[in-house]
Specification:
Two copies of one chain form a homodimer.
Chain A (H helix, E strand, L loop, with lengths): L16 H17 L6 H8 L3 H8 L2 H15 L12 H19 L2 H12 L7 H27 L8 H13 L2 H6 L4 H8 L2 H13 L4
Chain B binds a DNA duplex through helix 2 and helix 3.
Chain lengths: 214, 214
DNA sequence: GGCGAACCGTACCGTACGGTACGCAATTTC
DNA sequence: GAAATTGCGTACCGTACGGTACGGTTCGCC
């Protein structure tokens, strides 16, 4: 077993290349046909491995699902915004970039499939997958946003008491109900096209609400 | 078969009381244990009816699921806001009531369970349940909101080009990512407590964005 | 060159579910 | 009061899945 510390595509905690490739194929199956299509036999066939290996590596089916979420989350690295001096224009630019990135992430095929998977499991087993997805996904991108907002406040461009709350407002302005509609099956492409232009308007609105007079 | 035109609890299209009671029990099972707990045998046992009757009434399992959504949607009647003359204060009051109602609906146990169900099925079968839920649920409450917004515009209190877009902004300000977090399994009560106070702030923000100077 | 670990392919087992069929009781209808 | 409809309870069937076991093969290691 060759443990790859630093695999080609963000291998996370002690996964071999082979195991990463298997998870990749499993994610493909999930995107194609939803949870129902994600059978252990199906994964083994698609990945050219044996079921026995799957159980050896991931324990059971739930372990496989958790590993898929962790693996995918490990691929998304939050870009650190250069914390240089912020001007009003550069803050607006950074916020707009963030808005577009957020829309891109949320409307991604794999992201949608994993969210559907976690939501489907939320009723039983204490929502283990949901918490995992939340911590590895939302928290990560939320940190990037709050860091940006804090920088804006430090530069005297925006004002708020609670960064989390301000981020919640920004998120709502950008996303509205787009995410839920996509999760319910509305066409990804169409919705993304509808919401992308609103990214700038959302930033405008946010700055109207939280911006300080110059 | 006694067809009840006007059952006690909003019987929709040609459902007998018995069938309504069965759907009620089925919804209970869904809330308790998620989709996995919603087996045909389980529903029959819980509702004291036979599987054969289930198939006679609803065709197959999917028909049962669709009937559950339609039945639940039929129970939610949108309250027509009295379209009297709006003042700035009454518009704000109506918007706040709407915000609280929206939070109540979205955080309802049955609503969450049905949304989870529809999202779980969204990958296959053309998202039939998702569309059903969308049309019977979101559209309904959206109409109420846009009507209120239009009334506010007519009264010269708020200004916007597209009522749908304005509603999207209002929705995002109120809900943010609360709905998704609840769908992922975060505690309903805690999240509702967290978001309820924000209803008024959301309305404030909305009026800041769309209100006209008096 | 032989040993052992990892692993693939396949077969197998128990279970649980969707859907159907049947026997019998209750209620309605003529 | 008999015939028919309705529907409950149960048993049954085929299938598909999660999980396990086993034989054969490759590959690294001493």
């Amino acid at each position: 077993m060759q443990v790859v510390e630093q695999g080609g595509e963000g291998a996370a905690a002690g996964l071999t290349e082979r195991q990463g490739a298997v998870l990749e194929r499993a994610l493909g199956l999930l995107v194609e046909g939803g949870e129902k299509a994600l059978t252990t036999a199906g994964v083994a066939r698609a990945a050219n491995c044996s079921k026995e290996s799957l159980y050896k590596w991931f324990g059971d089916r739930d372990g496989l699902l958790s590993a898929m979420i962790a693996y995918q989350a490990g691929k998304v690295r939050t870009v650190e915004a250069g914390a240089g001096a912020l001007s009003a224009a550069s803050l607006r630019r950074h916020l707009t970039v963030f808005a577009r990135d957020l829309i891109d992430v949320l409307s991604g095929e794999v992201s949608l499939a994993l969210n559907r998977l976690a939501i489907g499991q939320a009723s039983r087993e204490g929502a283990k997958l949901g918490r995992l997805l939340q911590e590895r996904g939302r928290r990560q991108i939320g940190r990037r946003a709050t860091a940006l907002l804090e920088a804006g406040r430090k530069a005297g461009l925006i004002a708020f008491d609670d960064a989390e709350e301000a981020y919640g407002t920004l998120y709502g302005l950008i996303v509205s109900d787009m995410h839920l509609r996509m999760l319910l099956g509305e066409d990804r492409g169409a919705l993304k096209k509808e919401f992308s232009p609103r990214a700038e308007k959302a930033v405008d609105a946010f700055l109207t609400l939280y911006g300080v007079e110059s």
